[in-house]
Amino acid sequence: MQAMTRVQELLEQVKALTPEERAEFWLLVPSAADGDFELSTDWREETQRRVERLDSGETQAVPWVDVKHRLRERIRAHTD
């Protein structure tokens, strides 16, 4: 078995964060890319709105496993 790469290890650590921590993490990623990546102003504002809604309790994060399940069900419904 091959040892996990640093990126895979980081991904596992990110997965272990709470939804709020993950949202904050993804807000910080672009600034850590040394200028190679930049969110547009619209996306930065949208991301901030989503974090604020999470923080206020107006909305709740949906676990990725649930999102994948729902997507698979929708795809299945359209392909049958």
Q: What is the distance, rounded to the nearest whole angstrom, between the alpha carbons of the first and last residues?
A: 39 Å
- Provide the low-confidence segments as ranges: none
Count of helix runs: 4
The gross shape turns out to be extended
The helix/strand series, from N terminus to C terminus, equals HHHH
Roughly what is the average pLDDT, rounded to an integer? 85
Q: How many DSSP-defined strands? A: 0
- Backbone structural class: mainly alpha
Backbone CA Rg: 16 Å
Strand proportion, as a percent range, falls in under 5%
Largest sheet: none
Count of individual domains: 1
For this structure, the quaternary state is single chain
Helix-residue proportion? 55-70%
List keywords for this structure.
80 residues, mainly alpha, 4 helices, 65% helix, extended
Commentary on this structure:
With 80 residues, the protein is mainly α. Helix content is 65%, strand content 0%. The longest helix is centred in the middle third of the chain and has 16 residues, at 41-56. The termini are far apart. The mean pLDDT is 85.
Brief overview, please?
The protein is mostly helical and 80 residues long.
Summarize the SSE layout with pairings:
Blueprint lengths: L5 H10 L3 H10 L12 H16 L7 H16 L1
